[in-house]
Design a protein that fits this description.
Layout (H helix, E strand, L loop, with lengths): L1 H14 L6 H7 L4 H9 L4 H19 L6 H10 L6 H10 L39 E11 L2 E10 L4 E8 L4 H15 L7 E4 L3 H4 L1 H9 L3 E4 L9 H13 L9 H16 L13 H7 L1
Parallel strand pairs: 1-4, 4-5
Antiparallel strand pairs: 1-2, 2-3
């Protein structure tokens, strides 16, 4: 609990602004302003100083050795350099930094594809009912097996009407696909970025530096699902479930080009304009926006 509060306080200290004041952020994260200011003005404890010093040593040493040694070897090196610590403490600090030896099959936080990854808090918090358009967009990516390989579909939905406001396909699942889809949605909807919350999972396509920079240039607030919590992005997940059940499963084997064509038919000609949505009082997303 103490660790969770510290993380929230650090986020508030880093991201507060005139548009996102401290009072609003404290209310959002359910922490007291007095507690935040007490944390902000407090001197770091002796243990915190020791942990930071040890963490800096472990990082510098592992970098010098090309991230090869495991926590046991790093612990021995720390002891040799006069640090007073246990193997468990070294292991805990390395895990907190996202480090794992390159000798292991998995290398958390060290893979090239994730080297610039930055995640965000779950600010949406499953509040899927939105009163105005262009206030909350959600996004996700799915894959479809085609005759000539996998083809990926990225969509952006406006939670106000559950309308797909941007979509794109590619044979490569990367940040470029997300940015291409976002550009299409931005061109069509022309939202005010200062009032827009964008929510996704923590996939590398969304945590990539280029994707986050795209949001930053437009003053968009970024929210991300918690790891392993698909329900945090339930609306996007639900869209893909219907997309595959109602449309793609009936087509049989198709090419990548045909997949893109069929995705357009489903999204533009059926889902947005015809399909009745239960959360919209039985009307289509297009009809809902028209009458509201």
């Amino acid at each position: 609990l103490r660790q969770s509060k510290r993380i929230k306080f650090e986020f508030i200290a880093k991201h507060h602004s005139a548009k996102r004041p401290i009072k609003w952020l404290c209310h959002l994260f359910e922490v007291s302003r007095s507690g935040y200011y007490k944390w902000l003005n407090s001197e770091p404890s002796e243990r915190s100083v020791e942990n930071r010093s040890l963490s800096d040593f472990l990082k510098a040493t592992s970098d010098e050795q090309h991230c090869i040694p495991g926590y046991r070897k790093l612990w021995k090196l720390a002891i040799e350099n006069s640090f007073v610590c246990s193997k468990a403490k070294v292991q805990r600090l390395l895990q907190a930094m996202g480090y794992r030896s390159r000798a292991c099959k998995r290398s958390f936080g060290r893979a090239a594809s994730k080297s610039n990854a930055i995640s965000a808090f779950n600010l949406l918090n499953r509040e899927f009912n939105v009163a105005d358009p262009n206030r909350v967009w959600v996004s996700d990516i799915t894959q479809v097996r085609c005759l000539d390989g996998w083809q990926y579909l990225c969509v952006v939905l406006d939670l106000y009407s559950r309308k797909v406001v941007g979509w794109g396909t590619s044979k490569i699942n990367n940040a470029d696909l997300v940015i291409k889809t976002l550009n299409r949605a931005w061109k069509i909807r022309k939202p005010d970025g200062n009032k827009l919350l964008f929510h996704s999972d923590q996939g590398t396509q969304y945590t990539a530096e280029n994707t986050l920079l795209w949001h930053h240039k437009r003053n968009i607030t970024v929210s991300m699902s918690r790891k392993g919590n698909c329900w945090d992005n339930a609306c996007a997940e639900s869209f893909f479930a219907q997309y595959k059940k109602e449309w793609m499963s009936n087509l049989g084997e198709i090419s990548r080009q045909q997949m893109t064509t069929q995705s357009r038919l489903y999204i533009v000609n059926y889902y947005n304009s015809v399909r009745k949505h239960g959360t919209l009082d039985g009307v289509s997303p297009n009809a809902f926006e028209l009458i509201n």
